Amino acid sequence: MIELDARLRAIRDTHREAAADLRARALAIDTDPDAMAEHLDSPTYALIRESSIPAAHRAPDAAARPDRGTCLESIVGLVELFQGDVATLLACPSPALAGVFVELLGDEEQKARFYGRLADGQTWSCFAMSEEAAGNDATAMTSRLTPDGAGGWLLHGAKRYIGHGARAGVGVVFARTGRSALSIRAVLVELPLPGWHAERLEMVGLRGAYLSELRFDGVPIPGDALLGQHLPVTRRGIWGAMTTFHNMRMQLAAAAVGTSLAMAEYVAEHRKTAAGLPLVLARAEAARQLVYQAAAQLDVTPERGYLSSVAKLGATRLATDIARWAGAALGPAGLVEHPLLEKWTRDVRALEFMDGTSNIQRLHIARGHQSGHADD
Amino acid sequence: MTTALRDALPECERLARQEGLAAGLAAAVADTEVAATAPGRYAAVPEAGLSADAPVRRHRLADHEGVVFLATPGTAPHPPAALVDVGRRLAAARIGLVRRLLDQAVEHLTGRVSGDEPLIRKQLVTGAIADALTEIELLRVQVHGQDDPGALADAHDRLDDLGWEVLKLFGAAGYIADHPARALHVSVLVGNTWVVRDGGQP
């Protein structure tokens, strides 16, 4: 069991207060993900942004806050925020996944450029890896970087399901410079750029994530935009992506747990005698504990993804089960009468498709078991 | 079961499979006094044929399917006996819709390759398709053979789950609002307005 110490309890409590503000904005963002002006200056969004920017790159008045800590600290806070609303949190302009990757592979000058673009709190970042044909198989990507003959590159290809892709001001884009897995590289882009075409996809739910499709038609990329040049060859591309994905998987598991708890508590508030409520709450709390344990494990062995896959598979499955229960628990037409609950039942389904479907997680888990990781 | 209901169930399934959710729903609520039958404060109905000033609540995804939610007084917790027949016809329509999308998913998976092999040949995928077909066959028998409200509510719960299992076969494409799989999301909302559950099992 992970017992929260005083520091973790303080993180939990701070984020719990912010969750209520996220929830109050949830339906407006779901209705119109483009109408963000009224949300961008909120103290909650400032908290989220600053907690994911290293102190050295923050505005002076926020530099005194503690730096981003362990994975467990991050997940304890995120479960609380996600209990407010996952899509509203994802709608916040912040370093997000691109930040995790730039921290791993960026040199100091690239980090300064990246965080500098995000400093105004009005600029989104994107992490562009997924492609329509390649699905979850990053090594099958076809986007390519070809030398421009003057020390830079030209980017060709397309990406799909990229959060904030159509409104990002800065981002990380993956493409290959050759055929081998080691030739998959990432570049830091500052937008707009010629040849960069982007459009938001109309999604069923999680609309604050602003999932988009991108097309690159000879986008000029300067030579110094290539990430990881200062690192050994084996640590330049896919390695960083895999490490980033372990982190992302934990965030998705936290999103599933947070929404599960939110749905259970929503039902408890509106129908205290709902059948099965104590069991639902018990299962959601068990999933929270599993996600905590997986985060703590990732802090010890960041390259080992067995338990994070277990957490993602288990928590997303639980969240879709609880969504069905919650819809039934509020009686006939409960989903029509309770739009916030109905929104959550759509949102949790998105988690299935992000960073590996359940079938992909099953394969990771079985491989982890064969490697002895289930007994660690 | 009356002769009319016995004839209606396969027709509801056929219409939804061939023409989609709204057609199946139209057949399910045909000849039904919606206000006097619907258990909750809203009832899913086809938009076609409604008067322009009918009190409806709209939903972004349901709009695409031609389905709206008509304000109703609500008959729960003492709905009329006719509600069971509507629920059975609607379940048949939802079975037809799942079968419609399952056929499309199989076509999608046959054309999609991962690791030089069509996804349709991956064992986990094949298993999911077989499970879906088995559940369809079981549900059809249950809906045709049982008039117990509990069995009917169970069938709709399982149709929610089955729709999700089929939807996942499309991958992230099934989560785009203009994809045909959108109908499976709306089907959950439709069922939610016409079925009385005892709170459901977690």
From TrEMBL, chain A:
<dbReference type="InterPro" id="IPR046373">
    <property type="entry name" value="Acyl-CoA_Oxase/DH_mid-dom_sf"/>
</dbReference>
<keyword id="KW-0560">Oxidoreductase</keyword>
<feature type="domain" description="Acyl-CoA oxidase/dehydrogenase middle">
    <location>
        <begin position="126"/>
        <end position="219"/>
    </location>
</feature>
<dbReference type="InterPro" id="IPR036250">
    <property type="entry name" value="AcylCo_DH-like_C"/>
</dbReference>
<feature type="domain" description="Acyl-CoA dehydrogenase/oxidase C-terminal">
    <location>
        <begin position="236"/>
        <end position="368"/>
    </location>
</feature>
<keyword id="KW-0285">Flavoprotein</keyword>
<keyword id="KW-0274">FAD</keyword>
<dbReference type="Pfam" id="PF00441">
    <property type="entry name" value="Acyl-CoA_dh_1"/>
</dbReference>
<dbReference type="Pfam" id="PF02770">
    <property type="entry name" value="Acyl-CoA_dh_M"/>
</dbReference>
<dbReference type="InterPro" id="IPR009100">
    <property type="entry name" value="AcylCoA_DH/oxidase_NM_dom_sf"/>
</dbReference>
<comment type="similarity">
    <text>Belongs to the acyl-CoA dehydrogenase family.</text>
</comment>
<dbReference type="InterPro" id="IPR009075">
    <property type="entry name" value="AcylCo_DH/oxidase_C"/>
</dbReference>
<dbReference type="InterPro" id="IPR006091">
    <property type="entry name" value="Acyl-CoA_Oxase/DH_mid-dom"/>
</dbReference>
<dbReference type="InterPro" id="IPR037069">
    <property type="entry name" value="AcylCoA_DH/ox_N_sf"/>
</dbReference>
<protein>
    <submittedName>
        <fullName>Acyl-CoA dehydrogenase</fullName>
    </submittedName>
</protein>
TrEMBL record, chain B:
<protein>
    <submittedName>
        <fullName>Acyl-CoA dehydrogenase family protein</fullName>
    </submittedName>
</protein>
<dbReference type="Pfam" id="PF00441">
    <property type="entry name" value="Acyl-CoA_dh_1"/>
</dbReference>
<feature type="domain" description="Acyl-CoA dehydrogenase/oxidase C-terminal">
    <location>
        <begin position="90"/>
        <end position="142"/>
    </location>
</feature>
<keyword id="KW-0285">Flavoprotein</keyword>
<dbReference type="InterPro" id="IPR036250">
    <property type="entry name" value="AcylCo_DH-like_C"/>
</dbReference>
<dbReference type="InterPro" id="IPR009075">
    <property type="entry name" value="AcylCo_DH/oxidase_C"/>
</dbReference>
